[in-house]
Amino acid sequence: MAPRNKEQEQEVLNWIFAVLGEKVPSGQYEDILKDGIWLCKLANKLAPGSVKKIQERGTNFQLMENIQRFQAAVKKYGVPEEEIFQTADLFERRNIPQVTLSLYALGRITQKHPEFTGPTLGPKMSDKNERVFSEEQLRAHEGELNLQMGFNKGASQSGHGGFGNSRHM
Q1: Which residues fall in a coiled-coil region (predicted)?
Q2: Residue (of 12, 46, 44) closest to 28 by Cα position
Q3: Architecture of domain 28-111
Q4: Could you read off the pLDDT of 122-161 as tens digits, one per residue?
Q5: What are the angstrom distances between the C-alpha of 145 and each of 131, 138, 152?
Q6: Nearest one of 70, 15, 13 to 41, comparing CA atoms
Q7: What are phi and psi of 54, to 5 degrees?
Q8: Quick one: which of 39, 18, 40, 38 has its CA closest to 118?
């Protein structure tokens, strides 16, 4: 398990509440996020209507459903399943660093949604950078490769006393 990174956790909280247009509540990172309410509100801000029902209070089971609704919403939004934390990672504090990584992944995916104009989280994703080479450029490159490969011409392994050398049999 990766160690916790308090700066990243604070950056995630700042991002979530900037997106929501709310003040960051006081308290521990995992306590603020534990019941999934803020996460569901975040999902609805990014993709309106993506979480139909948010349990504002209730049993642990009902509050865990918030986290599961958030997970389903962000998966649909485009976060790869393998990057989404497990419910117990947050609710039972089993792997808080994974929660942080998942939220960074969500922040990254917002960049693929042109309709989202809010704050970003983490590094900017690279744009597709297609390159087109002329025949001449490709041929010139082939020549370079041949020169590099031919650099060892004349070198051989004959006389090398390794495996397969029949003199030792």
Answers
A1: none
A2: 12
A3: Orthogonal Bundle (1.10)
A4: 776 665 556 676 777 767 666 665 655 555 555 555 555 5
A5: 19, 11, 13
A6: 70
A7: -115, 120
A8: 18
